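Notes continue from the previous slide.

Worked example: a multi-chain complex. Inputs as given:
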Amino acid sequence: MSFDINEYYSRLNGGDVLMAFKGSISSELISNVLEVVESRMDEYRESSKIRKKVYNVLVESLQNLYHHIEVLPEEMQKEFDDKFGILVVSRQDARYKISTGNFIGQDKVDVLRNKIDKINSMSRDELKDMYKFILNHQRLSEKGGGGLGLVDIARKTGNELDYTFEKFDDAYYFFNLDVFIDLA
Amino acid sequence: MEALSIDGTAKTPSVKFDGQEGVIEIKGRSIPENSIEFYKPLVEWLEKYSGSPMDLTQVNVQLEYFNTSSSKCILDVFKKLEAIHKGKSEVIINWHYEEDDEDMLEAGEDYESIIRVPFKMIEIVE
């Protein structure tokens, strides 16, 4: 049986959910999500330090989705929006959790898995050096992606990136990324 | 040369480049999905300005947030300033960060270690 997106989505909706979205990830959607999460954090009276961290990491997470989402084959577009992605921002157990999910071509799984594993194995100083190297040596893609998003998230959160790849069909996997920001 | 002035939006910073005064300011949020388009006129303006810069160019960067797409374009802006500083005129980059915003201070230090222009780290106390 293939991976059940709806079951997965409802499983993510635990803790105190600030924002949950499933559908097309557009520039307008990103603006709206940022606005909602920012005002929700005001309600929680988070310190400016936490607010900034969550905001920054949320921007990178959403724009990672925006830049890397696959154009799905027509057959799948009957079931899923174009540029389909999932986002859940929740607050539980003294930390914020930002979960994102998107389809990824089977041929790209290994590259992404290796990249994340490498980032997770690095120390703070090594991440800083990697960030500066990519910043100084890699050009932006046409869409404006720079290959820095995950490194930046790892640096700012100081936590490992949790991920899974679930097989959807022969051509696609569903990639889930959980990012944690500690409150203290 | 003509000043460059751009109003800020929810995703892009306000910009004031004044060639007569030798003062360059970038303030606010820089989080567009694609930053190349936004920063292109800034880099082009600096390219022209580098032909006849003031003896001293003061650069004020005061960003609340910036994304990784912007980080590369900001580096491009700084590289133009580095070229001006390599010539006969002086450039100082004043990097502002809010109290407790260690990430923004560290981002400034990252640039300082890459770009050969003097940086001044300025903490904004509320």
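Summary box: DSSP finds seven helices and five strands in chain A. Helices of chain A lie at 5-12, 27-43, 48-68, 74-77, 109-120, 124-137, 149-157.
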